[in-house]
TrEMBL record, chain A:
PANTHER family: MONOACYLGLYCEROL LIPASE, MONOACYLGLYCEROL LIPASE ABHD6. One of its GO terms (molecular function) is monoacylglycerol lipase activity. CDD domains: lipoyl_domain. One of its GO terms (biological process) is acylglycerol catabolic process. InterPro entries: AB_hydrolase_1 (IPR000073), AB_hydrolase_fold (IPR029058), AB_hydrolase_sf (IPR050266), Biotin_lipoyl (IPR000089), Single_hybrid_motif (IPR011053). This is Branched-chain alpha-keto acid dehydrogenase subunit E2. One of its GO terms (cellular component) is membrane. Signal peptide: none annotated. Residues 5-80 form the Lipoyl-binding domain.
Automatic annotation (TrEMBL), chain B:
CDD domains: TPP_E1_PDC_ADC_BCADC (cd02000). Keywords: Oxidoreductase, Thiamine pyrophosphate. Residues 14-308 form the Dehydrogenase E1 component domain. The keyword Hydrolase does not apply. It comes from Acetobacter tropicalis. The keyword Oxidoreductase applies. It catalyses: N(6)-[(R)-lipoyl]-L-lysyl-[protein] + pyruvate + H(+) = N(6)-[(R)-S(8)-acetyldihydrolipoyl]-L-lysyl-[protein] + CO2. This is Dehydrogenase E1 component. The pyruvate dehydrogenase complex catalyzes the overall conversion of pyruvate to acetyl-CoA and CO(2). It contains multiple copies of three enzymatic components: pyruvate dehydrogenase (E1), dihydrolipoamide acetyltransferase (E2) and lipoamide dehydrogenase (E3). Its cofactor is thiamine diphosphate. One of its GO terms (biological process) is pyruvate decarboxylation to acetyl-CoA.
From TrEMBL, chain C:
Pfam families: Transket_pyr (PF02779), Transketolase_C (PF02780). This is Pyruvate dehydrogenase subunit beta. Keywords: Oxidoreductase, Pyruvate. GO terms for molecular function: oxidoreductase activity. SMART domains: Transket_pyr. InterPro entries: THDP-binding, Transketo_C/PFOR_II, Transketolase-like_Pyr-bd, Transketolase_C. The gene is acoB2.
């Protein structure tokens, strides 16, 4: 890095994010940073997340103060070599902001392509967000119990260079059909198979989180020909244990305060759960049928207060490459589930991480997954 | 006119119960043990009973501040009523309504009402329920000559006609709104008021069960058949004051005595059914005795019943809050 | 999910609930309009401002009932119908007309359950327009929610946006108690994203529309938008505000207000209703009683003067709270703090 000045702008964490709040600066002006160091905390309606430095350098200026809400793409700070003069920095800021204000009209033209849309998959109408193109096999992302496509907001676009990456809302979730006829893992895996057919995808890499991991394993069992590889993130089906107090509390919470307490069980760093995130979960939960759908699935998947499906035999017999992420501090599905898996499984136990590794340690999960998809999967 | 023996027995029992209940309240009120104030229905029994004889629990009535008679005629439990008037936990309203608010929706009794003219608008709604739910029910508003001058009541007559509701407006005209005579306070006639809203008008002698029974049958059949509302004007007399303690200085001496002597619906009923051989005097005597026992035990039970718990203060303001 | 106006959000809530439950009926003056007219046109108005347009066509005259101009009888009828098996939604048109039918609300609907010892349910909703800013003058512009909030047995809902309106109205229709649902007539054309599906927003849970550290602003109904506007301007000046929308004044979420005041130490209450015995008084009393120690400055109320609502545009503007007045009030509480510390 020599004379280049790098603009730090409000990032877009996927989906419908149009603005974000600069919650706090983690680096003072004048401080040197490495690539990947967290510069600031950005708060959105979905999650609070660290903003990682795109490159090494010195934080020369905090353009936006902590607490300010800015549109995506707005200048929040400037990174540059100490050799660059303050005058040049100021000139850069002025020029950048001037250009941005004239360019605002053109923004958003391409966002239509990445908007979620409804796809009829068997009996269900599913909300699908389909991004990226390329020669690699597509990657299908399956969220967990009570989640939705926003669980992949730090994952989907990051993995979409060189391949199609599809996220969708499971039946009974998000903007998909609310009424769930068969809430079992087999029933949900059937819906996923229907979705792949509807999208004319004969084979895909499959990444599943939590219940979605259980669905991914069930998909491998029931529709092996459709699965090229498995990326399992704290998956269901490997242990009997599940935090039923969480499951019940999470389904039945009818006030934001109660929901906040439940959502905090999902992560190790409780401050990640902002009020806006809670509100967005509650907005989805208030839709008619949303709660009933979760009850149906919970009854089918967690009979007698524990997991009903044993998918270890599926994992043990898996003939496709498998990687496994698990947060050491997972309060929902204990990390013990990662023990005694076949040695062929590439295992990542993440310290200081709860039940949402793909959000809590997005960059690690994305980096490992990119490598896994590129290197471990035969073309 | 053929009236089944069972109906006659039940009607006599209901009228006797009202009389005994109210006479007893008159006595008990004087002892100071009954909280608040009560408005007695003595003398008007044939009206409530003659109308309600045509109703089932599926039909709805709304009553007035003078509501004990309507409650008993509609089948509300006498013991529960007495306990309510005493403000006890065992009352039909758990001691939270009192004399003027006795209600039992399971019996189609939409409440006595402390607001003069409160009933007619509610009865438009109850009639709308019957019509919309197609349950063949009718809704009856009992109200007095005083309430007939309330704007609510006149609006309700209009609305019931406009919506062609299965409703009967029973004007219990005892000649006084509190201490003011109907001859002063009611302009025109009830008949012209009904005509003004395009509804049929009937009238009857409220001291004669058979007169009320026959007119009410016609009125209720009309409403139930879907032809729209009817006004039934019942002429009667109250034997006690507007409320207990009212010396009735606005009435000429002897007016009530004359009513008791010559226009007592119970006396009239007994004479008529025994002379026509419809019921035996002994059957009526048995009812009198049974009713006396029932009222006596209701008072004993009410006095012995517990007061509401403190927690009842906050209970049932809302279904959920 | 699509952009819907406040008017459309309410229409959709009514339509979806009427489809879901045949016991839900609609009544009011000109909720359809046109009956008895010489043209034979039905659904001529669909409500005086078109909110119930099209419901007659779908649900017919048995469930969308035009009433005579006769508030006491039909509001009373709604109470009677609710107590006997229907779930009526009665439209009072302008809330000012409560004067013609207060008994039916105050002494009948609100009291049934308590007077009858918990044995009655009165699932009715009274929808009515409130609020100044429409040049509708003194008899069509009042914000009478304090009057209803004062009456035990009633629930009182004042939505602040289209999303809120739909969810709160569906909740109101499904609720088993009498609910007064007040719509600010100036807001009918305001738009935002509203889900197409049915959803409910629970009563008694305040919504935080802004979060800040310096001042808590409690605002009601249309005032929430003004408070947000003021908070956004103030943020650029270095003052951050929490804006609380109580959503319902009965039940009332006291905890959220107390918690936020504990955090910020300063309170501004914005209330469009007449200033004596209004919600701003109630909230101020709450905070004075239970969070006095947290206050760094006196509470400031942004309320209209104690006058009827005037007609003429400049006078009405003078009368109304506004984003500017809220901004000034916030700066004022901040200044008072500075002076005391100095």
């Amino acid at each position: 890095m020599t004379n280049t000045i790098v603009a730090l702008t409000m990032p877009k964490f996927g989906l419908a994010m149009t603005e974000g709040k600069l919650a706090s600066w983690l680096v003072e002006p004048g401080q040197s940073v490495k690539q990947g160091d967290e510069l600031a905390d950005i708060e959105t309606s979905k999650i609070t997340s660290g903003y990682e430095s795109p490159t090494a350098g010195v934080l020369r200026k905090q353009v936006a103060p902590a607490g300010e809400t800015l549109p995506v793409g707005a200048l929040i700070g400037v990174l540059a070599d100490p050799a660059v003069s303050d005058a040049d920095i100021e000139a850069f800021v002025t020029r950048f902001q001037a250009e941005q204000s004239t360019g605002e009209e053109a923004e958003g033209a391409n966002s239509a392509d990445t908007e979620p849309h409804q796809v009829q998959a068997g009996e269900y109408s599913l909300n699908v967000r389909d991004v990226g193109t390329g020669d690699d096999l597509p990657l299908l992302l399956i969220h967990g119990f009570g989640g939705d496509i926003s669980n992949w907001l730090l994952t989907q676009d990051a993995l979409a260079s060189g391949r199609r990456v599809i996220a969708f809302d499971l039946p009974g979730h998000g903007a998909s059909t609310k009424a769930v006829t068969d809430g079992s893992l087999a029933g949900l895996a059937g819906a996923v198979a229907d979705l792949l057919d509807a999208l004319s995808i004969s084979k895909a890499h499959v990444m599943g989180h939590s219940l979605g991991g259980g669905i991914a394993l069930t998909l491998l069992r029931d529709h092996a020909d459709k699965v090229a590889s498995l990326s399992l993130v704290a998956p269901a089906g490997l242990e009997k244990a599940v935090n039923m107090a969480f499951i019940t509390g999470f389904i039945e919470a009818d006030r934001n305060r109660a929901m906040q307490q439940e959502l905090e069980k999902l992560v190790h760093d409780k401050s990640l759960i902002g009020r806006k995130m809670v509100d967005s979960v509650m907005r989805a939960r208030r839709l008619d049928g949303a709660r009933d759908a979760l009850r149906t699935i919970a009854t089918a998947c967690f009979p007698n207060g524990e997991q009903g499906d044993d998918l270890r035999p599926v994992l043990d017999a898996a003939k496709v490459p498998v990687q496994l992420f698990w947060g050491e501090a997972d309060e929902v599905l204990p990390v013990a589930g990662a023990e005694n898996v076949p040695s062929s499984v590439k295992k990542h136990i993440l310290p200081g991480v709860g039940h949402l590794p793909q959000l809590e340690k997005a960059s690690d999960v994305n980096k490992e997954t990119e490598e896994f998809l590129k290197e471990r999967v035969p073309a | 006119m053929q009236i089944a023996r069972e109906t006659l027995l039940q009607s006599y029992r209901a009228m006797r119960t009202i009389r005994a209940f109210e006479e007893r309240l008159h006595v008990e009120f004087a002892t100071g043990e009954i909280p608040g104030f009560v408005h007695l229905y003595c003398g008007e029994e044939a009206s409530a009973v003659g109308v309600c004889a045509h109703l089932t629990d599926n039909d709805t009535i709304a009553s007035t501040h003078r509501g004990h008679g309507h409650c008993i005629a509609k089948g509300v439990d006498v013991g529960g009523m007495m306990a309510e008037i005493y403000g006890r936990q065992t009352g039909v309203c758990r001691g939270k309504g009192g004399s003027m608010h006795i209600a039992d929706l399971s019996k189609g009794m939409l409440g006595a009402n402390g607001i003069v003219g409160g009933g007619p608008p509610l009865i438009c709604g109850a009639a709308l329920s019957h019509k919309t739910l197609k349950d063949n029910g009718v809704a009856i508003a009992f109200y007095g000559d005083g309430a007939s001058n309330e704007g609510f009541t006149l609006e309700s007559l209009n609305l019931a006609s406009v919506w062609k509701l299965p409703a009967v407006f029973v004007v219990e005209d005892n000649g006084y709104g509190e201490a003011t005579g109907a001859s002063y306070a009611c302009a025109g006639t009830q008949k012209d008021r009904a005509a003004g809203f395009g509804m049929p008008y009937m009238e009857c002698d409220g001291t004669d069960f058979f007169s009320v029974y026959e007119s009410a049958r016609e009125a209720i059949d009309y409403a139930r058949s879907g032809k729209g509302p009817v006004m039934l004007h019942v002429h009667l007399s109250r034997w006690y004051g507007h409320f207990e303690g009212d010396a009735m200085t606005y009435r000429v001496a002897g007016e009530v005595a004359e009513q008791k002597e010559h226009h007592d619906c119970l006396k009239h009923f007994r004479e008529r059914v025994t002379s026509a051989g419809l019921l035996e005097a002994t059957a009526l005597d048995d009812i009198d005795a049974a009713v006396a026992d029932e009222v006596e035990s209701s008072v004993i039970a009410a006095k012995a019943a517990p007061w509401p718990e403190d927690s009842a203060l906050m209970a049932d303001v809302y279904v959920k809050y | 999910m699509s952009k819907k106006s406040f008017r459309q959000a309410i229409n959709e809530a009514l339509r979806q609930e009427m489809r879901r439950d045949p016991r839900v009926i609609l009544m009011g003056e000109d909720v359809a309009g046109g009956r008895g007219g010489t043209s034979g046109v039905k659904d001529a108005w669909g409500g005086v401002l078109g909110v119930t347009k099209g419901l007659l066509t779908e649900f017919g005259e048995d469930r969308v009932l035009d009433t005579p101009i006769s508030e006491a009888s039909y509001i009373g009828a709604a109470a009677g119908a609710a107590a006997t098996g229907l779930r009526p939604v009665a439209e009072l048109m302008f809330v000012d007309f409560i004067g013609s039918c207060l008994d039916q609300v105050l002494n009948q609907a609100a009291k049934f359950r308590y007077m009858f010892g918990g044995k009655a349910r009165t699932p009715m909703v009274i929808r009515a327009m409130y609020g100044a800013g429409f040049n509708a003058a003194a008899q069509h512009s009042q914000s009478l929610y304090p009057l209803f909030t004062h009456i035990p047995g009633l629930k009182v809902v004042i939505p602040s946006s289209p999303y809120e309106a739909k969810g709160l109205l569906i909740e109101a229709i499904r609720d088993d108690d009498p609910v007064i649902f007040l719509e600010n007539k100036v807001m009918y054309d305001e738009e935002e994203d509203v889900p197409d599906e049915s959803y409910t927003i629970p009563f008694g849970e305040a919504n935080l529309t802004r979060e800040g550290e310096d001042v808590t602003i409690v605002a009601i109904g249309r005032m929430v938008g003004m408070a947000n506007e003021a908070a956004d301007r103030l943020e650029k000046q270095g003052i951050t505000c929490t804006v609380i929308d109580p959503r319902t004044t009965s039940p009332f979420d006291e905890d959220t207000i107390l918690e936020c005041v504990e955090e910020t130490g300063r309170l501004v209450v914005v209330d469009e209703s007449s200033p004596r015995c209004n919600m701003a008084c109630d909230i101020s009393a709450l905070v004075a009683e239970r969070a006095f120690g947290a206050l760094k400055a006196p509470i400031v109320r942004v309320v209209p003067p104690h006058t009827p609502v005037p007609f003429s545009t400049p006078l009405e503007k003078l009368y109304m709270p506004s984003a500017e007045k809220i901004e000034a009030a916030v700066k004022n509480v901040m200044k008072q703090h500075a002076r005391e510390v100095a």
